[in-house]
Amino acid sequence: MISTQDIVFAVLYSLIVLLGVVGNGLVIIIVRKTPSMHTTTNYLLMNLAGADLLTLLFCPGLYDYALSRVHLEGFWGDLICKLFAGNAIVPITINVAVLTVCTIAVERYLALLKPFRSNLRITEGKVKHVIAVLWILALLSCIPDIQANTYDITSSKYPCKRPWSLDEYFLHKPFIIFTCVSFGIASSAILLFCYFEIIRGLYFTKTICAESTVTEKDRQAKKQLARLVVWLAIIFAVCSLPFAVYFTFLISTDSEFVQDNYDALYLLHRISRFFLFSNSFCNPLLYALQSSNFQEGFKRICEGRQLGRSVRETSGNACGVELERKSYV
């Protein structure tokens, strides 16, 4: 029977999927249709939006409560488990998003704190190759997940075997440990380091935007950048770390404890997974829609005007490098 909990999560997923698909779709359209926004960071933002869009489209949270009544067979059962019900595709897109977020953080760190180390920067000519590498790495990291997602003819609870379920995690401990450490804890550490160094350079060491040389416009851009990077780190940690911490706890406990507290752990599993998917809804708001260029692009779409007429905006060179060459803050 459908429980109140099922209905609540279905409604919540419906909201983030609908709004997230629209938001990420707008980001992709604005970047593609605005020549002045064809920059390294914006290409990475567009890749992030594409990964988040696929994450939300393949998100099974809308219907997984009803899959206990679904009967699948053979090849088609395995295929449906791998593509939809079993979450085999979603980990790839989530890992791409995490890798892209970290790449953006490192790119901003190098741009603002290592402006003369141009050999370390990602150029517009290289960004497509970098994006391809991110997708390949994400795909390789999820091969165990793809293989493990198969139709389970013996199960009365759910039609698919899944490494990230509360019933199958103990069979895939090495894979779960690797994913939690690499894409949860390590990625959060990279973000915190890069953004902490940016904040420190802005306000403490004064290596970014020295007060004696900046204009009022630069000061405002400086405050906006600081506010944005703080929220980036906070939202990413809030959305991603609970899922990694939850499964780290699961693999460190025994199966008897899990069975004795199954209902509570199942609810925590659904909550932490919802937060993980919510990150794909939050990203376009945090990374793009706070940018004046993205806001202008959104207005132009609503008014039916051509995006190609967008005015190139920069924050000047008072900070050693432009805070974002064409958009971002």
Please, could you describe this protein's structure?
By secondary structure, the protein is mostly helical. It has 11 helices and 2 strands; from the N terminus they run H-H-H-H-H-H-E-E-H-H-H-H-H. The protein has helices at residues 4-33, 40-57, 74-85, 90-113, 124-141, 143-148, 173-203, 216-252, 255-260, 262-288, 292-303, and strands spanning 150-151, 160-161. Mean pLDDT is 83; it is low at 310-318 and 320-329.
Break the fold down into its secondary structure elements and pairings.
Layout: H1 4-33, H2 40-57, H3 74-85, H4 90-113, H5 124-141, H6 143-148, E1 150-151, E2 160-161, H7 173-203, H8 216-252, H9 255-260, H10 262-288, H11 292-303
Antiparallel strand pairs: 1-2
For the biggest sheet, the summary is:
2 strands, antiparallel
CA gyration radius, whole angstroms = 21 Å
Average pLDDT = 83
Strand order of the largest sheet: 1-2
Number of helices: 11
Structural class: mainly alpha
Low-confidence stretches: 310-318, 320-329
The end-to-end span amounts to: 48 Å
Oligomeric form: single chain
Molecular shape: globular
Order of helices and strands: HHHHHHEEHHHHH
Q: How much beta, percentage-wise?
A: under 5%
How many strand elements? 2
Percentage of residues in helical conformation: 55-70%
